[in-house]
Each structure stands twice: as C-alpha cells, then as structure tokens.
Design goal:
Belongs to the bacterial ribosomal protein bS1 family. The chain is an alpha+beta fold and about 425 residues long. It is built from eight helices and 20 strands.
C-alpha cells in the first residue's frame, strides 16, 4: 500500500475518508476487508453519548426555566397591572402577579359594594386589573382602586361624548346634592338641579336620575354633574309628542301667553303654543284682542290645523261655542225686551248689537213715537238702547227690533193708571 501511495492523503482513523478514497482508487483485497469490518462495527455499535455534557445542558435549561418562573417582577406603586385569580374564599382572593408567590387581596380590596363573599366579585381564572399599593417582596394590590380609576376614565369619555349617565341621589350637602354614579361620588350643584315648581332639594334623595357630566378630573377624583340639559331634553320631547298628538277639531284648555294686534298666543300644554287670529276670537265684529282675553287667563280653544313641519298650530276661540244664531230663538224670544249697543247708523235705521254675533235692526220709524228726521241727532255709536224683538229670520240671520213698541206700551200703562 505504501508503494501505491494509498495513504498519502488519507487519515487511517477516518473510515469515511477511506471510503471516499476507495471510490476513486483500486484498493488491495486486504484493505477492502478491513474497510468492511469497520463499517460493520460502526453499524452495530451505538454512538457514545457524552452523559456529562447532556446532564449539564439539562441542568442549565432547568435553571433557566426556574429563573424565568420565579424571577421577581418589578412593580411601582400606582401601577395598574393585570393578574389572574387562582383561588377564591369568603375573605378574599389569591392572584398570580408573576411573582414567586401568589398575592392575597382581601375582600375590602376587591370591591366597595356590600357583598357576602369574594366569590360574588371574582372567580378562579378571571383576569382582573389591580393597582399596586405597595411594591417589593410584600406586594399589596387593590382591584377596587383600579376599578375606580377605570370608572373615572369611562366617565371622562362619556362627558366628552356628551352621554347621559344614571345616578342615585345619596344626600343633601352644602351647595347641592351628592350623587353615586356606579360607585363614584359626584357633585350636583343646586344651580344645575333644575327644580320644578313645588320641588325641594331633599325631595330627590334616594331617587335615580339622569345627568350630564360637565367636569371629570380623575387626578383629584372630582366629578360635577348637571340635570338642566336632561330636563330641557325631556321637556322638548314631551312638547313634540304633544304636538304630534293634537287632533284637528278637538277642544283643549290653554293659557293666554301673549296678546298681539293680529291675534293671541295660547299655550295648550307642555309648551305647545298656538295662534288665535283676530277673526277667530269672536263670532261678531272684530274686536281688539285685549278686549276679549287677558294674559294668564285660562280659555278653551279648538284646533283648526296643525303643521308638523313648521310646528305651527292654528286655534279658534269662537268655535268652542255654538254660533249664537243657532240658539237665538231660545235666548231672544219674540216679544222679549233686549238691550244692545249701537253698532252702526244708517239713514234708514240703527244696527243694534245684542250679543257676540247677534245684531238687530231698529228701523228709523221704530226708534221713537215721534218722527225722526236725522238719526245722528237722536243716537250715536256706542249708545245703549232697549228694544222689543218683533221678528227673527234665523236662516238669514236677521232680527227686527222696535224701541217705539216699548215707549207705546209705557204710555198705555201710564194712561191706564
């Protein structure tokens, strides 16, 4: 083999290099048999295992895992962290905060509500947020304070989004009311309460109300609320609902709110106002609205029309009563003596107004027992006159009156005496 220079570039202890060389060189028979023996031994014998090296590697891995498991995590006072509930009993709960030992949170640190057991608050497996009250080996945690911080943050968002929140009135304090909003104390100033007529501050104690938040400061734990906007919204909603429910032709009671030359504004309930135009005030001649009604007076009105688009309501005062001519015969029977006001003067006679919408004519010949040449010299507009009902034309709404008949009757009675 030396003569053939077989081992010139081969390591005698390296079977693989011999095999590689054998692929390109023709080996002597004795070398081929040696190679086969080495291959057989390699297949039958397992590789030697360095047990010391493997043990050391395993120990290092275990130590690394243990260090990861039991390495004390570092927290700062005031931090909000997430922990897992691992055990719950009546007095509190144990949580895993990633430290060597589980941390116990007493019941008073879990909630500020009145509960019988910690199981009413948390369950095993729950992931909860807690606040670090004390760091170091003796870690102290509080779910209650973390929840409060979250509540303040939520309230601030609701304030920014202008959302209404529900609150319970706890008690009367200086300057207003103390509210409870899901466990957070809030102040409702007296100026923002929006007391209704007959209400007092203490009348709201114990009641649940809705408010808007006008200030939320989590740093100093200050929350200020207002009820005014809620009441305004409720009032507006009620007004619109009342407007929708109005029915044409129905009669409602209202209050005169304002009087103008062209008509009268009337509140018919819940802030809904309607207008009575001057021609709908009376059945008779148009009168100054101030002569018909007064501000603050309670009156009945009939709805003539409702426009929901512009929220205008048209009303009538005169149509709440029957037209006077419908009952004229009952009120002014033929032969009865009536009194009226001179409404108009014509060359042929005087128009006398007996009542709203009811007029009668006294012919010039029926004004007196004596001849009258010029009526203006006898009466003037606004004078009060008595007359006797001589005839009624209900269909055409006409009535004939006579003052002369009264005078003649009086003269006859005097002659009889």
């Amino acid at each position: 083999m030396e003569e053939k220079n077989f081992y010139e570039n081969v390591n005698p202890n390296d079977i693989e290099s011999i095999l590689t060389k054998a692929a390109s060189e023709k080996l002597p028979q004795s070398v081929k048999e040696e190679v086969r023996r080495e291959e057989t031994i390699k297949e039958e014998k397992p590789e030697k295992i360095n047990f010391n090296e493997n043990v050391n590697n395993n120990v290092q891995k275990q130590n690394h895992n243990q260090n990861e498991t039991f390495l004390m995590k570092s927290f700062k006072k005031g931090d909000i962290i997430t922990v897992t509930v691992v055990k719950v009993d009546a007095n509190g709960a144990y949580v895993n905060a990633g430290t060597k030992e589980d941390v116990f949170i007493p019941l008073k640190g879990l909630t500020n509500k009145q509960v019988n057991s910690a199981s009413d608050v948390v369950r095993v497996g729950d992931k909860i947020n807690v606040m670090v009250l004390r760091d170091g080996p003796n870690l102290v945690l509080s779910k209650k304070l973390a929840d409060n911080i979250k509540k303040y943050e939520d309230l601030k968002k609701k304030m920014e989004n202008e959302e209404k929140v529900k609150a319970k009135v706890e008690k009367l304090i200086k300057g207003g009311l103390l509210l409870d909003i899901d466990g957070v104390s809030a102040f409702l100033p007296q100026s923002q309460v929006g007391l209704k007529k007959g209400e007092s501050l203490d009348s709201s104690i114990g009641k649940e109300i809705e408010v808007y938040l006008i200030e939320v400061d989590p740093k100093v734990k200050r929350v200020i609320a207002s009820r005014l906007k809620v009441l305004q919204e409720e009032k507006e909603q009620l007004r619109k609902q009342t407007l929708v429910n109005l029915k044409k032709g129905e009669i409602y009671e209202g209050t005169v709110k304002a009087i103008q030359d062209f008509g009268v504004f009337v509140d018919i309930g819940n802030g809904v106002e309607g207008l009575i135009r001057i021609n709908e005030l009376t059945w008779g001649r148009r009168k100054d609205p101030h002569e018909v009604v007064k501000v603050g007076e309670k009156i009945k009105v009939r709805v003539l029309s409702v426009n929901l688009d512009n929220e205008k309501v048209s009303l009538s005062l005169r149509q709440t009563k029957p037209h006077p001519w419908e009952i004229v015969e009952e009120k002014y029977p033929i032969g009865s003596i009536v009194e009226g006001t001179v409404l108009r003067i014509h060359p042929f006679g005087v128009v006398l107004e007996l009542d709203e919408g009811i007029t009668g004519l006294i012919h010039i010949s029926q004004l007196d027992t004596k001849r009258i040449d010029k009526i203006e010299n006898f009466v003037k507009i606004g004078d009060k006159l008595q007359a006797k009902v001589m005839s009624i034309d209900k269909e055409n709404r006409k009535m004939k009156l006579s003052r002369r008949a009264i005078l003649e009757n009086e003269q006859g009675e005097n002659q009889n005496k």
